[in-house]
Design goal:
Blueprint lengths: L7 H10 L8 E7 L3 H18 L1 E7 L2 H10 L8 E5 H9 L3 E2 L5 H4 L13 E13 H7 L19 E4 L5 H13 L8 H6 L4 H4 E5 L5 H6 L5 E4 L1 H9 L4 E4 L6 E10 L5 H12 L1 H11 L12 H7 L2 H7 L5 H19 L2
Helix pairs in contact: 2-13, 4-16
Length: 347
């Protein structure tokens, strides 16, 4: 079994809490994405739980794939108590037996139905959605109206201005591919329309395929990127940096992109881990997360900020329109799709 390696900040916190003066303080480890999400949780969300329960919560940051790899490497004796993973990776985590069922409670019953997985093995703590973002400065210069449909990616006027994340490495890119595949008559069980029609439609407009969304900021500022799949939260992060980007929800609906929580099976303190999981699902915590990090709630009783309400509209109505993809089917076929995408689309 491979040893569990804490990142320097987490290791420092662990050492500090091991001193005699603080030996009675328990530590919980929470695996999750770093960046703005980690900052919001560390500064404005987790301190309330720590104070109420007399514990210290240390975040172990990483991508969803990295965190799942840590769980699998330490499956017999895990040191992480709770993890937050993107829904596609979480589906794999459940099938690999690294999650235990969430305790029943009022928080679960307050969630939107799509935020609860079968058997309550996991639950969504943050509602994301992949829609369309566009370069507002470029669109103004060209006199283009904002996009309204996934089909806009095929419009010849956007030739050389579409940036698409690779469907083989990015959930945003995969979502975009699957929605266009649906428009062409396909489904998760039949991606032939997408692969057959792509190169003669969307492919003609793509200036570059990128492995993730990190390069979009630069490409918007240089005018290379005009249209691309993105989430409202990611678009908001770019706007906060002064990048001329806006998000729209396509008329066919955006694609559901949940951040799910999992209480790790066989973790060292299952009772406290379940308490942390329930805390993260609560309406008060998710309201705070919306204020601190523009995170869209999965709890129907939570509130969004006014800017979020203005951008997204009524969340109850939006939740009815969101498209849900079948990750069980996707994960079985994904290796073959990835090979075909790399060979046929990004060759």
């Amino acid at each position: 079994m491979k040893p569990f390696h804490l990142i320097p900040t987490a290791a420092a916190a662990f050492i500090a809490l091991s001193s005699p003066a603080q030996a009675d303080v328990k530590t919980l480890y929470l695996g999750m994405n770093g960046g703005p999400m980690e900052k919001a949780y560390t500064s404005q969300i987790l301190p309330d739980f720590e104070k109420a329960n007399g514990v210290k919560v240390v975040i172990v940051p990483g991508t969803s794939s990295d965190i799942l790899a840590k769980l699998l490497a330490n499956k017999a004796k895990p040191q992480i108590h709770v993890v937050l993973l993107d829904d596609g990776i979480m589906s794999r985590a459940i099938s690999m037996g690294v999650c235990q069922k969430l305790d029943d409670g009022p928080e679960l019953r307050q969630l939107y139905p799509f935020a609860r997985t079968k058997g309550d093995m996991t639950a969504g703590v943050q509602l994301g959605m992949t829609g369309i973002a566009y370069n507002t400065r470029l669109f103004k210069e060209k006199g283009w109206a904002p996009p309204t449909s996934w089909a806009d990616f095929t419009d010849p006027k956007y030739a050389g201005k579409v940036v698409f994340q690779s469907a083989s490495s990015s959930t945003f890119g995969l979502h975009g591919f699957l929605m266009l595949n649906r428009l062409w008559g396909g489904s998760e069980k039949n991606v032939e329309p997408g692969f057959t029609k792509w190169q003669q439609s969307v492919g003609k407009n793509v200036v570059e395929y990128i492995p993730n969304s990190a390069k979009i900021s630069e490409m918007v500022q240089t005018g290379e990127a005009g249209l691309f799949p993105l989430t409202p939260t990611a678009a908001g992060d770019l706007q906060e940096k002064g990048i001329p980007v806006a998000y729209v929800s396509p008329k066919e609906g955006p694609v559901l992109l949940l951040v799910d929580e999992c209480v790790v099976a066989n973790n060292p303190d299952p009772a406290l881990a379940q308490k942390l999981a329930a805390f993260l699902l609560s309406a008060s915590t998710q309201t705070r997360a919306a204020e601190a990090g523009r995170q869209i709630p999965t709890n129907k009783e939570a509130k969004m900020t006014e800017p979020m309400n203005k951008q997204l509209g009524n969340l109850d109505e939006l939740a009815k329109k969101v498209n849900v993809v079948d990750w069980d089917v996707i994960n079985v076929s994904r290796p073959q799709w990835d090979q075909r995408w790399n060979r046929q689309i990004e060759r």
